Amino acid sequence: MLSKETIDIIKSTVPVLEIHGKTITSTFYQMMFENHPELLNIFNHANQREGKQPEALANTVYAAAANIDRLEDILPVVKQIGQKHRALNILPEQYPIVGENLLGAIKKVLGDAATPEILDAWAQAYAVIADAFIGVEAEMYREAEDAPGGWRGFRSFVVERKVKESDVITSFYLKPQDGGAISSYMPGQYITVRVQPENESYTHLRHYSLSAAPGGNHYRISVKREDAAPGKPAGIVSTYLHNSVNEGDVLEITAPAGSFTLDQEQTIPLVLIGGGVGLTPMISMLETVLKEQPERKVTYIHAAINEGYHAMREHVEQLDAEHDQLKSYVCYEKPLGQCSCHKSGYIDLPWLQEVVSKDSDFYFCGPVPFMRAVNQALKEWGVPEERIHYEFFGPAGTL
């Protein structure tokens, strides 16, 4: 337990963190990778380069400081981050490394303002927060290993099939190399792939949503190839998977994880909205509902740039034809010709009001601007916050 004096000191630093938080976390990552370059085998280099990871950590540190006297309030955040840590195989012995470099970054950025009293208070607070993460994650490791077909750490899977779904999205069907059972998962969860492309100094890990309903003898991920764009290099892992990984090759993955999952206790109408490759968890949820909740009305909406970017269209159309409970819609931002879609341009509130009921459970995933627009539309419509669910690909952000 932290003393009242320590809690007061931590809370006094909250305004400073609000101003300098991202500078501190950016400095922290720079220092940590200089001192422990082996950790570059774990962290997403692109998220570092684009500032997403430092910003996400700054938000977490700020929330921890603001709630240091009631850490139970941020337990949902701890569990969400814990899921990603377990999927990345983060180990308890790595936490002291993080603490040492975080304190070093605070001292470096704040200079003389980081008094010995402040640094000592933060050292105590970090120890408490780290223990919370380690405890939560230990239970997650146990659950993943003890589940039927489960395992700890990385396991080798063979690419049984590789299927092109669109101009930029390809699906990979993965079966365990050892021929054993595989653990089930909740629709919306992801697996983590570890690869080391030729000419890369470090291993690279990426989370990919499972794009099929659970219950089969394989996993399916559907990966968008992230090509180079002005000011943005090509995605290391996605281009490697598309260009270099073929049927029969072996990939290392961790057991399914993630907290963005479908609430199957609900029976009210379900609305699934996917933008681009954000369709992956939506397809898993859609297939699951059609299998397990045949009485539940579901609307599936997919937004893509155009026909060439649209993955799994025929699959969804077939599901729509086979299931009376399902209605599906397509929105193309820039149709190639005469729009073979239900809407051109962007999804907006007036159109949503035409095709779905406000009294629904809404799940959506896709690029951040897309999710921001959908979230704003739903809030403007007056949809209660507890019925709005979304997932960030990568570090958590805000809409």
Automatic annotation (TrEMBL):
Please tell me where FAD binds in this chain: Y190, F392, F393, G394, P395
- Name the catalysed reactions: 2 nitric oxide + NADH + 2 O2 = 2 nitrate + NAD(+) + H(+); 2 nitric oxide + NADPH + 2 O2 = 2 nitrate + NADP(+) + H(+)
User: Where do the FAD-binding FR-type domain residues begin and end?
Assistant: 152-263
Binding positions for heme b?
H85
Q: Which Pfam families match?
A: FAD_binding_6, Globin, NAD_binding_1
Q: Which residues are marked as site: Involved in heme-bound ligand stabilization and O-O bond activation? A: Y29
**Enzyme class of the recorded protein, top EC level:** oxidoreductase
One GO term of the biological process aspect:
cellular response to nitrosative stress
Q: Where is this region: Reductase?
A: 149-399
Q: Where is this site: Influences the redox potential of the prosthetic heme and FAD groups?
A: K84, E391
Give the required cofactors: heme b; FAD
Locate the active site: Y95 (charge relay system), E137 (charge relay system)
**Where does the Globin domain lie?**
1-138
Any one GO MF term held by the record is:
oxygen carrier activity
Keyword annotations for this protein, in alphabetical order, are: Detoxification, FAD, Flavoprotein, Heme, Iron, Metal-binding, NAD, NADP, Oxidoreductase, Oxygen transport, Transport
Q: What is its EC number?
A: 1.14.12.17
Q: Where along the chain is NADP(+) bound?
A: G276, V277, G278, L279, T280, P281
Which CDD domains does the record match to this protein? flavohem_like_fad_nad_binding, Yhb1-globin-like
- What free text does the record give on domains? Consists of two distinct domains; an N-terminal heme-containing oxygen-binding domain and a C-terminal reductase domain with binding sites for FAD and NAD(P)H.
Supply the PANTHER family for this chain: FLAVOHEMOPROTEIN
Family per UniProt? In the C-terminal section; belongs to the flavoprotein pyridine nucleotide cytochrome reductase family.
Q: Would you tell me the protein name for this molecule? A: Flavohemoprotein
Organism annotation: Paenibacillus mangrovi
List the lineage, top down.
Bacteria, Bacillati, Bacillota, Bacilli, Bacillales
